[in-house]
């Protein structure tokens, strides 16, 4: 393990240990239920009381399965139409549409616009696409909040889509250069002369990779090093991943995942109605898997990492006044948010640790005020490392410049419907799922405040505070 510990400034003192939990994931702690407290309020900074009316998503599917012959805008269109059906809002009421995407289909580079047009929206409805890695639909949501706060629009759809079944694969740069020059050649002789320069290595394709451009390291390698730096064992990661799948399976069986809208694949009789990556494995089955990135001593495997996923999501945002005027009952207030960034080499996946205290302080809340935690699970090792960092005074003072640690969240409030490890992670669609699961859990669990947080490529992260809307129902 010591052979691939992270660089010195991320070294964790030997005195910091992973606490046990009653769910078997020893990287997280359980605290006693909080006593009833006086209800807190969070100031509305927009002057508009921006609300999340509702959200939907297509079933999240393993790439290469039922969606494999589609295009990404097909899924985005389905999420748009599903949102309209679920809320009953007319297309004409939508002022603006924002979608996130990460691995971009070049034919539909502004996928928000293409999805709108294919869904039958007016060509007068503007739309644009954003990208911020795994927090792209969070960025879509908060961009929408900003537009509403500025008074530019009243009703916005924010969403995200990712389609890993058909990613763009390029010719090598040498081949691209030759083809461009050949296209400009005016005579057959010039073209033949260029073709004579082709060498075997020209044919090597360039595939997109989940890797950092600045460090040339895959995210899996970064996660392996992070887990090693925080002394997160293989068993702890497998335990956490097993918990995620068990909770997602329970939520699926109990009918909690009501954000899903069925999808009919053209030419296929059976309708897709649920996520297909949730699997219940035994500890023995998980232990048999070999390391996926750092070999042979790494601890991240296919079982404790999120998988390549196809899917789309969409949510409806507006002012509270507009919702009342339209006769809509919101699910939640969108109270506050913050984006963070740090070293993309050694702190690539620590966005939640940095974002959580900042967004809590902005909102005037503490860790104990959060009733629902919805945190993106890129890797089980990443989750365990963040929880250890949150519970470390040493990390808070030496790395974050804080006087005391963030504090350990209560496992009884943490990702109780599973997470990205089990439900799936279509990169740009996950943020909306996190938001609506937070809203729905607040309603079902009778909570007031939820915290959404996630890491993202580039060493970035997001934190969002969501408050249950009075009288909201699922």
| Main sheet overview | 10 strands, mixed
Structural shape: globular
Structure annotation, total helices: 14
Distance between the termini: 46 Å
Strand-pairing-aware structural class: alpha/beta
What order do the SSEs take from the amino end to the carboxyl end, as H and E? EEHEHEHEHHHHHEHEHEHHHHEE
Q: Approximately how much helix is present in the residues?
A: 25-40%
Mean pLDDT: 92
Uncertain ranges: 1-26, 28-36
Radius of gyration: 23 Å
Beta-strand percent range:
5-15%
Number of strands: 10
Overall description:
32% of the residues lie in helices and 15% in strands. With 474 residues, the chain is an alpha/beta fold. It has helices at 72-87, 111-118, 136-149, 173-184, 188-195, 219-229, 234-253, 283-287, 320-326, 351-363, 380-390, 393-398, 420-423, 430-444, and strands at 50-57, 61-62, 96-100, 127-130, 155-162, 309-319, 332-341, 372-375, 449-456, 460-468. The model is unreliable at 1-26 and 28-36 (pLDDT under 50). Strand 3, helix 2 (111-118) and strand 4 (127-130) form a beta-alpha-beta unit. Strands 1, 2, 3, 4, 5, 6, 7, 8, 9 and 10 form a 10-stranded mixed beta sheet that branches. The chain has 14 helices and 10 strands.
Keywords for this entry:
474 residues, ten-stranded mixed β-sheet, 14 helices, globular
Task: Please sum up the structure shown.
With 474 residues, the protein is α/β, with parallel strands linked by helices.
List the helices and strands and how they pair.
Elements: E1 50-57, E2 61-62, H1 72-87, E3 96-100, H2 111-118, E4 127-130, H3 136-149, E5 155-162, H4 173-184, H5 188-195, H6 219-229, H7 234-253, H8 283-287, E6 309-319, H9 320-326, E7 332-341, H10 351-363, E8 372-375, H11 380-390, H12 393-398, H13 420-423, H14 430-444, E9 449-456, E10 460-468
Parallel strand pairs: 3-4, 3-5, 8-9
Antiparallel strand pairs: 1-6, 1-7, 2-6, 5-6, 7-10, 9-10
Helix pairs in contact: 1-2, 3-14, 4-5, 6-11
């Amino acid at each position: 393990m010591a052979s691939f510990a992270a660089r010195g400034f991320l070294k964790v003192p030997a005195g910091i240990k992973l606490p046990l939990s009653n769910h078997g994931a020893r990287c997280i702690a359980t605290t006693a239920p909080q006593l009833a407290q006086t209800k807190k309020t969070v100031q509305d900074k927009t002057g508009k009381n921006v609300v999340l009316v509702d959200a939907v998503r297509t079933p999240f599917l393993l790439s290469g399965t039922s969606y494999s012959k589609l295009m990404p805008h097909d899924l985005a269109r389905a999420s748009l139409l599903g949102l309209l059906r679920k809320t009953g809002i007319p297309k004409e009421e939508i002022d603006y549409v924002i979608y996130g995407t990460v691995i971009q289909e070049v034919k539909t580079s502004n996928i928000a616009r293409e999805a709108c047009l294919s869904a039958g929206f007016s060509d007068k409805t503007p739309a644009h696409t954003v990208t911020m890695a795994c927090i792209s639909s969070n960025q879509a949501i908060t961009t929408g909040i900003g537009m509403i706060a500025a008074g530019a629009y009243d009703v916005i759809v924010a969403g995200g889509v990712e389609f890993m079944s058909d990613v763009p694969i390029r010719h090598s740069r040498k081949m691209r250069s030759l083809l461009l020059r050949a296209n400009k050649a005016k005579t057959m002789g010039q073209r033949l002369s260029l073709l004579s320069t082709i060498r075997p290595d020209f044919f090597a394709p360039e595939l997109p990779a989940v890797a950092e451009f600045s460090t040339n390291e895959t995210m899996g390698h970064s996660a392996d090093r992070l887990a090693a730096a925080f002394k997160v064992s293989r068993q702890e990661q497998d335990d956490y991943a097993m918990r995620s799948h068990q909770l997602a399976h329970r939520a699926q069986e109990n009918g909690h995942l009501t954000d899903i809208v069925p999808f009919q694949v053209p030419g296929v009789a059976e309708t897709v109605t649920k996520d297909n990556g949730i699997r219940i494995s035994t500890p023995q089955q998980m232990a048999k898997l070999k390391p996926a990135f750092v070999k042979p001593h790494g601890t991240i495997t296919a079982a404790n990492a999120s998988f390549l996923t196809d899917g789309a999501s969409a949510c409806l945002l507006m002012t509270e006044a507009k919702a009342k005027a339209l006769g809509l009952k919101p699910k939640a207030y969108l109270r506050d948010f913050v984006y963070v960034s740090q070293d993309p080499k050694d702190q690539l996946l620590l966005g939640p640790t940095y974002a959580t205290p900042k967004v809590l302080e902005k909102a005037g809340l503490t860790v104990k005020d959060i009733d629902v935690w919805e945190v993106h699970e890129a890797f089980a090792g990443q989750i365990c490392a963040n929880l250890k960092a949150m519970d470390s005074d040493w990390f808070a003072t030496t790395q974050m410049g804080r006087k005391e640690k963030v504090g350990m969240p209560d496992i009884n409030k943490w990702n109780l419907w599973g997470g990205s490890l089990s439900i799936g992670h279509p990169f740009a669609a996950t943020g909306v799922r996190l938001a609506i699961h937070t809203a729905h859990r607040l309603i079902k669990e009778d909570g007031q405040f939820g915290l959404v947080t996630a890491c993202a490529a580039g060493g970035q992260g997001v934190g969002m505070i969501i408050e249950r809307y009075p009288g909201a129902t699922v």
